[in-house]
Amino acid sequence: MSKLGNLGARLHRGEIGYDFVGKRWIWYGVSILITVVAIAGLAVRGLNMGIEFQGGAVFTTERTSVSVSQAEEYAEEASGHDAIVQKLGNGALRIQVAGVDTGKSDQIKETLAEDLKTDPEKINADLVGPSWGDQIANKAWQGLAIFMVLVVIYLAIAFEWRMAVAALVALIHDITITVGVYALVGFEVTPGTVIGLLTILGYSLYDTVVVFDSLKEQTKDITKQTRWTYSEIADRSINGTLVRSINTTVVALLPVAGLLFIGGGVLGAGMLNDISLSLFVGLAAGAYSSIFIATPLVADLKEREPQIKALRKRILAKRAAAAAKGESLETPVVERTYGDRDAEDAEDAEGPEDATPAVVGPRAQRAQPSSRGRGRGRPSGKRR
User: H-helix or E-strand containing 248?
Assistant: First the structure.
């Protein structure tokens, strides 16, 4: 644990790091592959929409020894439709049948009571009309669209349009993967699923904004220096917030994993399954996209600007000239602020620039400054 903490501190200080932006095409390829699999799952299997979206009836029985498979057979024979049966934590059964009207639900209830050998009054029936299910689906899509529009507007005002576009791509990436997993796993899509999706979108956006804020701060007056390219500074921003992103993601995933694997898997709580799966997949996808998708995409877009292109050419030419002269390419560690001409002059006086991104590999130790005026006017240099 101490080694891990030391590694995190060194990453935060910029002493070591990983070239995320330089290897961005690997991450793009991985994301495209996962997205294609998710879309294929949606196309082949489709989503298992709950009765809240397509209408139907839900029957909840008392504690019974009837198995889930046997209850499914009883429900399908009684209704003539496919049924979904879940075993609840107290031994009761939750039987869901889609496309059932009010008149038929009473008949199904009586038939189920006979098959399960229980009193019809002890079976609770909840009905949802198809028109109400359509309204819920439309409201969910409207809420998602409004959320996306507000996110783009806010990021465009607070940062810039390139960061807004990158964040939007990352959010669509997270939604697609989460929905695709739902289709592949076959979990039921309920209002709890929608709540989980909106929650993970907010979390993913928070993680992305943290990196963007660091990047915006470090790239102020970037064209007034000739030490780092925009992509290299983007790498510094990712590495500086990497440990924070990992820690917050792990801490958030632990209780969600408890809901998914214990609450939903062991206890059999249906609603916990619906919301916890979207949270679990979405939190992991959001952390991934904020590091490997959003910031590298911003760097790609920024490197297309004429000023940033010209800056990159100047930096590469300066490094090539230093390499041709056979001078040392070790970069001194100098605390500086972009745009500070005094610091820039001090760097130029100390030696040539590094030919590799600053975040890759350890950096040189700072030379300790000698005390000014020490021994001035005294041959021995000793104090009296």
Answer: helix 230-257
Task: Give a yes or no: residue 158 inside a domain.
Answer: yes
Asked if 63 and 208 sit in the same domain, the reply is no
DSSP-assigned beta bridge partners for residue 48: 188
- Provide the pLDDT confidence category of residue 268 given band limits of 50, 70 and 90: low
Report the pLDDT value the prediction gives residue 40, as an integer from 0 to 100.
Answer: 92
pTM: 0.70
Residue at which a domain ends, from 302, 327, 352? 302
Query: For residues 101 and 129, what is the distance between their CA atoms, to the nearest angstrom?
Result: 7
> Amino acid identity of 36?
V
Domain count, the chain: 2
- Does residue 328 have a pLDDT over 80? no
How far apart, in whole angstroms, are the C-alpha atoms of residue 336 and residue 203? 32
Q: What is the distance between the alpha carbons of residues 61 and 56, in angstroms, rounded to a whole number?
A: 17
Greatest alpha-carbon span in the chain:
110
pLDDT at 285 exceeding the cut of 50: yes
